[in-house]
Each structure stands twice: as C-alpha cells, then as structure tokens.
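Worked Example 4.2. Consider the chain below.
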Amino acid sequence: MSAPPFTINHRLCLGVYAGAFALGLPLNVAALVALGTVARRRRLLPADVLLLNLTIADLALVVFLPVRMAEAAWETTWKLPPALCPLFVFLFFTSVYLTILSLTALSVDRYLSAAFPVEYRRRRRATHAAVAAASFWVAALAHCSVVYVAQPNAAVNGTACYTRFADPQLATLLALRLEIFLVLFCLPLAITAFCYSRLICIVVALPTTAPGKRRRAVALALATAVAFILCFAPFNISHVVGYLRQENPPWRAYAVLLTTLSSCLDPLIFCFSSAALRQGLRQVWDTVGLGRLCSRCLLLVGQSEGLAKVTGQGGSGASSHEKGDGAGLVPPQELKT
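Applying the procedure from the previous section yields the following structure tokens:
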C-alpha cells in the first residue's frame, strides 16, 4: 500500500504567519526607533550598523507575511497577479539570507571586540560595517535571483506560487539551491559557530569579567544558535534533500514557515547586544505605555546600570557603555592581559 500524499495544515501555517506578524512588526519597529534614539545621542558603532541591517531585513520579512497569510487562507492557491509571484518569492527569501549574513557579521564583531579589544577599538569604523551590509544585500539579491532563472513564469491564477516546475527548470533550481546552501548557510554557520565559541571561551577565562557579562555573552550565542538551528536550518536542509532526490520536498512549506520566526527571535539578540540599545528600547516602550513590562523583560537580559558599576567602567546607565564597546560584553581593560 502506498503512503498517503503529504498534506499541509493550512490553518497551522496561517496561525504561525499571523503570530509572527503580530509579534515581529512591533518588536522590530521598536528596535528601529531605539536605534534612532541611540544615533541621536552618540555616533553609531559597527555593531549598531549591523543591528540596523538585521532589523531592516526582519522588517522586510514581516512586511511580506500578509501575502503568506493570504496564501495559507487560499490553501496555497495564488490569486494575486502572476507577475507578483516571482517578485514576492525573490524579496522574501532575500530578506531571509540578509538576516543570516547580518547575524554572522554581528558574531564577527563581537569576537573581534573580545579577542583584540585595543586594536579593534582603534580600527573599527561604522563605514566598514556599512560596506559589509551593502555587500550582504548584493550577495543575497544575486543568489535569490534564481527565482527568475529557474522559473520566469512562476504562477498562473488558480495554481500554487513557485512550486511547479518543468524538469529542466527543476534541475537548474535544485543545483542553485545547493550552492545557496553551501555559500549562504554553511559558511555563515561555520563562521558564527567559531566566533561565538571563542567569545564564550574568552569571557569565561577572564576572572575579572562580571557574571552578568558572562551570562549575556552566553545568551547572545544561544539566541543566535536557536535562530540558525530552528529558523534557518530546516529550510536550507530542504535544499540538500531536494537536490539528492531531484524533487521539491513536500515538507518544504513547513521549513519556510519556521524562517518567519526569526523576526520574533532577532529582537532578543538586539537586547543582548548593547546596553545603550536596551536603554533606547526601554524608552520606546515607555513612550507607548509599556515601560513596566519592558523593564521586566530587560532585567532578564542584563541590568546595564548595575553591570556598569560592577565592571568599573565609570559613569552610570547607558552613558558609560556608550563610551565603551557597543555590545557591553567584555570591557577592553579586562582583556589587555
């Protein structure tokens, strides 16, 4: 007896997309406003620029979620103009890989600030991070243009969007997806794993590092690991499975579903990354009347004012961190030895 055909739970997809939209939109808008608040107080650091790029990528992902919600409500039947299908797929997956590359760049920034504190503080420039962010856009846009290479006519009204391919199109698409898996997932994952493993080793090895800073460094690494493993790994593994089986995996829809959760998880990374940004985020929530809730949440990721005193950086609150390293994880004076 043959196995029953794979069916997609459209209600589940609709619920997850709606939840990601409801959470991801306000969280990332708040993060964007917080970055603006920090930019008005001091010069942006490379980490701030990378966080800005990450937030823009997440917002781009969130903006397209209503289309995913409509697809789920229509049970994957594409009822919008056919020309919008490849454009939507192109921009949606571009934002996914922009998120991956931005997370990787943040891990490199954190590692360099911990491993080479004096030299890195002397050489770092926000313009360098801006150039890196621009290169991420070029890489993501170039790779995701496979949408137009593999299937120029991606949908016709009454059929699904970007799921049915002629054999030559499918062969080309699967090979390009494998290349994307290697270049835009495996390589960033390896770099991120190296940087955060080394960062944790450095922070743990320093006896003068405040316990709160150790916890925040570990939490930052864990949040990034969850984003890679939960949100991005299944989708990219579907590239490999599809190439080996020479088919579009039927469960790929659920893998795509998981990528949207990164828009809700990345704001946690935002909070772990900088004391100044945490204070900016707190001010945003104070403005909309959610300051008490925000303060309780931010206590979980580090009481920046107390940590500033423990580490002896001088000053109080976010101002002392603003003069130091953007992440507030490892003060340079602790690393000179």
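The first helix runs from residue 10 to 41. The CA atoms of residues 29 and 236 lie 27 Å apart. Compare this with Example 4.1 before moving on.
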